[in-house]
Design brief:
The chain is of the alpha/beta class. The protein has helices at 13-27, 40-50, 65-74, and strands spanning 2-5, 32-37, 56-60. It is 48% helix and 20% strand. The chain has a three-stranded parallel β-sheet with strand order 1-2-3, sandwiched between helices. Strand 2, helix 2 (40-50) and strand 3 (56-60) form a beta-alpha-beta unit. It starts with a strand and ends with a helix.
Amino acid sequence: MLEVIRDFEGMDFDAMWENLRVGLPMADRVGHIAIVTDRKWIAALTGLASAFMSAETRTYEPDQLAEARAWLEAA
């Protein structure tokens, strides 16, 4: 799974909770998740959330999009 997050400023608590409620169980259906973002807090949150998922996760900077895709294709 590839998620590209650009210019994201944040979300309210209810939206974040809904995203976690729906997204975490779904993440167990995939083996690898690459997050491409320029937001350090999203990268940190991804690291924290990965402790609760079976999928291997990696974060990449926006200029590393090709590397993220290559990692997913090799998986």
